[in-house]
Design a protein that fits this description.
Belongs to the class-I pyridoxal-phosphate-dependent aminotransferase family. The chain has a 7-stranded mixed beta sheet, sandwiched between helices. Helices cover 42% and strands 14% of the residues. It has 2 domains: 132 residues, Alpha-Beta Complex (Aspartate Aminotransferase, domain 1), CATH 3.90.1150.10; 221 residues, Aspartate Aminotransferase, domain 2 (3-Layer(aba) Sandwich). Helix 4 packs parallel to helix 10 and helix 11 runs parallel beside helix 13. The chain is α/β, with parallel strands linked by helices. The N and C termini lie far apart (43 Å). It has 13 helices and 12 strands. The structure holds pyridoxal-5'-phosphate. Pyridoxal-5'-phosphate binds next to helix 5.
Length: 381
C-alpha cells in the first residue's frame, strides 16, 4: 500500500456497500428483498424534464459549456435563491455534476491539514470522507440524545466551536434523520459562526421535501450572507439522481477560488443536463408537490406501523428517512434484518449513530407494510 497516498488511505469505503452487497447476494439466491436502504426517490424523472433533456440532446447541446455553468441556468438558480431570501447573483454560482461535487469542491477550497471541521451527528457519510481527504480534523456533536434536534444541542455546539474552527456543516432537512432545524436553532448556529468567524456549509438538498414546515436557508440570516456556502441540487427534489446536477452558491471571491478546482477537474456539468435543469425549475412544481405528498403519506404510515409494534421513532419533518432505534449492535441487527427478514436498511453506525438503523421510505406503501410485517415476524422490532 506504500504506493497509495495517505490521503486516500484515510478514507473508508462507503459503509452502505456491505449492506447492498449482502442484499445483492440474497437476491441472486432468489430472495425477495424489500430495499429500504436507498438514498434516492423511487419516482421517474418528471416527463417535462426528460423531454427538455432529450430535446437539448437532439438540438446538439453536447459540447462543453462555460465551466461554472450555462448562463440561463445560473440565472435561474440565482432567481430561485433570491426567492428564498438569499441575495444571489449568477456570478456567485457554480453548477456541478451533483451536490456531492459541490460539497467536495467546497471542502477542498476551505479545509487544509489540521483544520477543524464540526459535524452534527448523525451525519451523512460523505462529509467525513471529504474532510479527511482534505486533511481536516473532525469535531462531532451528537444530536441523537435530543431526538435529532439541534436546538437542545446548541450548548454542546458552543462548547465545540472555537476560534480554531474552520468550518461547520449543517444539513437540514437531514440525511439520515429527516430532522428540519427550527429558526431558533439556526440563529444559534449563526451567533456561534459570527462570534468565532466560522464558515458554514448549508446542505439544503432535501429542501423541497418537507411536511408542513418551511425550511430556512442559513444564508438569509443576518450576518450569514458572506460566511455561508449554500449547497443544493436536482437529485432529490426532481427525482434526477442519475442526471448528476447540483450547485453551490457563495461569495464571488469563493467562487473564483473553487472555480479553479471545478475547471481543472470536471470542466463543467453535462451540457444537455443543464438545459433540463432550466426546465425543472420552470415547470415542475406540481410533480414536486405530488412526490412530497406521497413521501408524507408513507412517513405517516411507517410511524403508525412502528407504533403498532411499540416502537416510537423521532417523527421526521423532511427528507425520506427515519432513524429506527434497534439493538446496540446495529450492524448485526441490519445483517439479521437482511438474512432473516429480507429487509435492507443502513446501520446507524455509518452515520456515527450506533443503536439505530436508517430506514428510507422511498418505497411503495405496500412494500413498507411488507417490511414492517417481516421485521415483526422475525422479532426484530
Ligand atoms: N447531500 C446529502 C445530505 C445527500 O443525502 C446527498 C445524496 O444522497 C447529497 C448531498 C448528494 O446528492 P447529489 O450529488 O446526487 O446531488
Amino acid at each position: 500500500t506504500d504506493d497509495f497516498t495517505d490521503r486516500i488511505q484515510r478514507v473508508e469505503p462507503s459503509a452502505t456497500l456491505a449492506i447492498s452487497n449482502l442484499a445483492a447476494e440474497k437476491e441472486a439466491e432468489g430472495a425477495d428483498i424489500v430495499d429500504l436502504s436507498v438514498g434516492e426517490p423511487d419516482f421517474d424523472t418528471p416527463e417535462n424534464i426528460v423531454a427538455a433533456g432529450t430535446e437539448a440532446l437532439e438540438a446538439g447541446h453536447t459540447g462543453y459549456t462555460s465551466s461554472n455553468g450555462v448562463p440561463e441556468l445560473k440565472d435561474a438558480i440565482a432567481e430561485k435563491l433570491r426567492g428564498d431570501g438569499i441575495e444571489a447573483s449568477a456570478d456567485e454560482v457554480i453548477v456541478t455534476p451533483g451536490a456531492k461535487q459541490a460539497l467536495y469542491e467546497t471542502v477542498q477550497t476551505l479545509v487544509e491539514d489540521g483544520d477543524e471541521v464540526v459535524l452534527l451527528d448523525p451525519a451523512w457519510v460523505s462529509y467525513e470522507a471529504m474532510v479527511k481527504l482534505a486533511g481536516g480534523d473532525l469535531e462531532r456533536i451528537d444530536l441523537a440524545p435530543h431526538d435529532f434536534q439541534l436546538e437542545p444541542a446548541l450548548e454542546d455546539l458552543a462548547a465545540a466551536i472555537s476560534d480554531d474552527t474552520e468550518l461547520l456543516i449543517v444539513n437540514s432537512p437531514s440525511n439520515p434523520t429527516g430532522a428540519v432545524y427550527a429558526d431558533a436553532a439556526l440563529e444559534g448556529v449563526r451567533d456561534l459562526a459570527v462570534e468565532h468567524d466560522v464558515t458554514v456549509v448549508s446542505d439544503e438538498i432535501y429542501e423541497r421535501i418537507t411536511y408542513g414546515v418551511e425550511p430556512t436557508s442559513l444564508a438569509t440570516l443576518e450576518g450569514m450572507a458572506d460566511r455561508t456556502v449554500t449547497i443544493n441540487g436536482f437529485s432529490k427534489a426532481f427525482s434526477m439522481t442519475g442526471w448528476r446536477l447540483g450547485y453551490l452558491h457563495a461569495t464571488e471571491e469563493f467562487v473564483s477560488q473553487a472555480g479553479k478546482l471545478h475547471s481543472h477537474s470536471v470542466s463543467c456539468a453535462t451540457n444537455f443536463v443543464q438545459r433540463a435543469g432550466i426546465e425543472a425549475f420552470a415547470n415542475t412544481d406540481e410533480a414536486v408537490v405530488e412526490m412530497r405528498d406521497a413521501f408524507c403519506s408513507r412517513r405517516d404510515l411507517l410511524v403508525d406501523l412502528f407504533a403498532d409494534h411499540g416502537v416510537d421513532v423521532a417523527v421526521p419533518d423532511g427528507a425520506f428517512y427515519m432513524m429506527l432505534p434497534v439493538a446496540e449492535d446495529d450492524q448485526a441487527w441490519c445483517e439479521d434484518a437482511i438474512e432473516q427478514a429480507h429487509v435492507a436498511c443502513v446501520p446507524g453506525s455509518a452515520f456515527n449513530a450506533p443503536g439505530y438503523a436508517r430506514i428510507s421510505y422511498a418505497a411503495s406503501e405496500e412494500r413498507l407494510r411488507e417490511a414492517v410485517d417481516r421485521l415483526a415476524e422475525n422479532d426484530l422490532l
